Structures are given as C-alpha cells and as structure tokens.
C-alpha cells in the first residue's frame, strides 16, 4: 500500500468517524424532539382538564371557590411546564439543525475530496497516456531511422 493510499484510508476513517458522530447527535436531537412533542401533548391534555375543572367549579357556584383556586394553580403549573417544554424543543431544533449542517459539511467535504482524487487520477492517466504516445513515437522514429540507415539511405 502506497503512502497516498494510506493517507486516503486515514482520511476516510476520520470522515466516517465524524459522520457517525453526527449521526448519533442527530438521533439524540430527534429523540429530544419526540419527547418534547409527547410532553406538549401531555401539557395540552392537562390544560384541557384544568379548564374543564374550572368550568365545573364555576358552574357549582361560590361554595366551591377553593376548587377554582386549585384549578387555577394547576393551570399555572401546566403553562410553566409548557414553556419549559417549548424551550427544550427549541434547543433540540437548534441541535438538530447544527447536526444536519455538520453532516452536510462532512458529506460536502467527502464529495470534494472524492472529486479531487478522481481529477488527480484522470490527470495521472492523461500523463501516462501522453508518455506512452511519446514513447511509441520515439520507438517508431528510432525504428525508422535504423531501417533507413540499414537500407543505405543515410550516409
């Protein structure tokens, strides 16, 4: 294995490792987003229950005013949880976007490196083909000169 091949192998291993790291970050961000969505659904359900409880208390009159207060407190807790959940969702979205951007950069760099290697290979192939043509021309000239000299056409 040539030094160039070893460098390419090391580069590919590094890129693969970076890609795997990004993939893990993406999965983690997606899991946080999923948990956030579930928490938001739960908050929505709690909020609905609190509203229903509040409506029931209001319908029963002032004698159960303490139930209204309890429902109001519960609704405040739900709103606070929803805010926290939204913050978590926003943070997860930022992390997801960063991970996707990093993954795209890695893929772009890998593509650029692959194109560079292809271009180098093509240039190397062109140089070899040109050298082969020159060698063939030199051989033909040499054979032609040798043949002409043997036939007495050249002094």
From TrEMBL:
Region of interest called Disordered, as start-end residue ranges on this chain: 119-155
Protein name, entry field: Flagellar FliJ protein
Organism: Terriglobus roseus (strain DSM 18391 / NRRL B-41598 / KBS 63)
């Amino acid at each position: 294995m040539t030094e160039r091949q070893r460098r390419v192998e090391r580069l590919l291993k590094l890129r693969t490792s970076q890609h795997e790291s990004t993939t893990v970050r993406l999965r983690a961000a997606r899991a946080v987003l999923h948990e956030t969505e579930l928490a938001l659904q739960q908050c929505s359900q709690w909020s609905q229950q609190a509203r229903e409880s509040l409506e029931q208390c209001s319908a029963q009159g002032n004698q159960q005013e303490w139930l209204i207060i309890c429902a109001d407190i519960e609704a405040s807790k739900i709103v606070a949880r929803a805010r926290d959940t939204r913050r978590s969702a926003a943070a997860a979205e930022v992390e997801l976007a960063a991970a996707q951007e990093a993954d795209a950069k890695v893929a772009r760099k890998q593509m650029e490196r692959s194109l560079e290697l292809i271009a180098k290979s093509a240039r190397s192939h062109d140089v070899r083909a040109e050298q082969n043509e020159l060698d063939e021309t030199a051989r033909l000239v040499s054979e032609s000169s040798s043949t002409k000299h043997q036939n007495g056409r050249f002094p």
